[in-house]
Write a structure and sequence with these properties.
The chain has about 290 residues and is of the alpha+beta class. The protein is built from 13 helices and eleven strands.
Amino acid sequence: MKNSNIQTENIYSMIENRLENIYIFIDGYMPKQKLKELYILLTSSEYRFLFSEYNFFEETWDVSPIILEVNNIALFRSIQRLNIFGWFWIGLSNNDIDDVYRYFKNLVTAYSPQKDEVIFRFYNGEIFSNYLNNCTQDEINELLGPINSSFFHISNTDWKTVVNRRATTPSPQKSPWWIIKDQHLNIPSLINMKILHTNITSYLWSNHFQFAQGIVNEEGKLECFATRTVARSEALGFNNEDQIYKLIDLTVIAGEGFENATPKNKIIRGGTVPPDKVLDYLSEFVKND
């Protein structure tokens, strides 16, 4: 795949000329205050929630990814001022927003290399840019569907371009249809982002909302916690997601995070456990459960 860079001024020109429809795909997992400011901007243009037809939408609507149509430079400048560049990417299309939505809503979940259904965070600019680096041109064409060209922020003024050489108005496919292959996950930055395990964030929002909200308030990005969770779980020898979810359940109940930052002991199942031993204690409980 051959990439080229464009300048922010080029994007302004595209918006001004309106030769194609311009959409921004935005990841809803961002600092709470940034999300509030973003919602204010949504009132000035057409947008769609990508989670809206999924059964977990009611619990996760406020962090749902969004497709936003950009119809003026002022709106784009306002989004720039939010400084959320890693959370979004830009797509150009000849299709209207409903066509684009119908295609991409069925990419919200995909199959992992192990054929498990997982959340596929293509709407996150940093994750999707890295992911596309490992795709063939045919895979890029298929993934981007109705999007002619896509742009990913790489510096103050520069954007990486990824072109779809076979843009169409595709018929929506039943979700999940995309398969994440092993070769798509072979660079460290992508492995660290844990695209394969980001359904953990949906699990946290659905099952431990207050806990998840507390992480967002303190850290800004729930996926960082999810990545640490997966890394620590793997280090503890867990080899399936059910065990990871069980460990999350227990740590939430115990009031202990995965980094054990609390300086005092925790009372678990009637006994006192030092903070640096909490995970070992819980992992043994999970393994023997």
